[in-house]
Every structure is written in C-alpha cells, then in structure tokens.
Amino acid sequence: MEEESSRLEAVYGGYARSARRRSAWDRDHPGNRAMRAELCERLLAGAASQLERGAEVLDIGCGGGYWLRELAAAGVAPGRLHGVDLIPSRVAAASSMPEADLRLADARRLPFEDCSFGLALMLTALSSMPDRTAARVAATEAVRVLEPGGLLLVYEPMLPSPLNRSRLTVKPAQLAQWCAPGATTRSVERLTVAPPLARGAARLSGRSYGLLARVPPLLTHRLTLLEAR
Q1: Residue 116: which domain range?
Q2: What is the CATH classification number for the domain harbouring 141?
Q3: 174/209 Cα distance (integer angstroms)
Q4: Which H or E run contains 17?
C-alpha cells in the first residue's frame, strides 16, 4: 500500500506543480462546473433505486470527498456515506464530513465485509491504477463488497491521453469481463464533452455545453452501470 500511495502522491503532486493543469482543472471554471453538473445528474439518475431505499454508499478513490459532499447535498444521509483513498492528505480533506466513514485504504484490498454496500462509485479510479492487473483486482473488489442487486457506477475516459501517459484506458467489455460472474452490465452511456472544447465553449455561453453534449462524437467518457448478482 505504501508503494502505491507514494506513486499516486508523485503523480498528483506533478499535476499540482503544473500551472497548465491547475488552470485547466480550476474547480470554478464554467466548463468544469458544467462537466461536473452533467456527471452528477447522471450519477443520481443511475443510482436512484439504491439511494431511495437508503443503501450504504462507497466512493472508491474518493479524493477530497467532492462526490460524497454532492451526494450529501442531494439528500443522502452522511452516516450512509463511506469513502476510501490512498493519499493521506485527501482522506484528511474528506474528513471534513465528520459523520461519513472515511478511510485510508487500497482499492485492491477494501477494508469491508462482503455484501456491505448497495452502491459503489469508481469515478476515474480504474484509470489511476498502476496497470491493468491492479485495475482488474480493484474492479473485482468493488463487486465483492456489493450486496446482491447492488450497483457499481464506473466513469472513465474512452481514449488514451497523449498528455497523460500514467492514465489507463478501460473499455466496457474489459470491465464486464473483470466483474463477471459477480456482476452484469446494465447500461453504458457516453457523456462529457471533450474537456478542452467544453472549457472554451462554456466561457462563450452558458448554453453552449448543453448543445455540444447532444453531439455524440464530441463525448469523451463513459458511465458504465453494473449490477451485482
């Protein structure tokens, strides 16, 4: 765990030192807000059945807790929210939600019993893994901790990035193979306008992102919904 934690610290530390990346990923940029709002809407729609029945929720690779806070803002009781991450500073930041269960842990060795959750999120978590073997183990671990009928939502870029060689690309067919026979794919949805285009368009007009999001060739990510057996 320490080796992988150090690797991630180095990767994200490099991002933080890059003025270009800091500018592109500025949380307050209109384009970034539009992309996050779209993803949040799709996540809540996909997870509605589990959220409405009061399921326990796990965010694998929760970072600083952004999506856990979004779920809380959408009405999910903080006591039902759980998150794991390998970077201590991010877990500390996520711990600003005192009622949530936040843990320093490896996605490949989740510190939870089988069938503990009704909903699990992996939002660009698999593409952050060191290799495909690690990504496969993390995916099977996510399925392990889901109860029968529980949902796993996986959000990942569709194509490799020439500017980010450390990022893996995981295709839905490969994800389905990793998760079988413990889970089956219910849906695969394309979303997220190519980020450079989204950022430029959102500066021009508040409606621009929504218009571009209707053009499938401009969409660069997938949201895959799997159901545990």
Answers
A1: 2-228
A2: 3.40.50.150
A3: 30
A4: helix 2-17
The number of distinct structural domains making up the chain is 1
Q: What is the DSSP string of 80-122?
A: GEEEEES-HHHHHHHTTSTTSEEEE--TTS-SS-TT-EEEEEE
Left (φ > 0), alpha (ψ -120 to 50) or beta: where does 173 sit? alpha
Residue entry with tokens 């965010």: 59
pLDDT, residue 160, reads 84
- 101-104 and 117-123 beta bridge pairing: unpaired
Split at pLDDT 50, 70, 90, the class of 182 is very high
Token look-up 């997938």 returns 222
The answer to whether the beta carbons of residues 21 and 15 sit under 8 Å apart is yes
Mean pLDDT in residue range 54-61: 98
Per-residue pLDDT of 99-150, as tens digits, reads 999 999 999 999 999 999 999 999 999 999 999 999 999 999 999 999 999 9
Residues 6+ apart with CB under 8 A from 105: 1, 84, 85, 86, 111
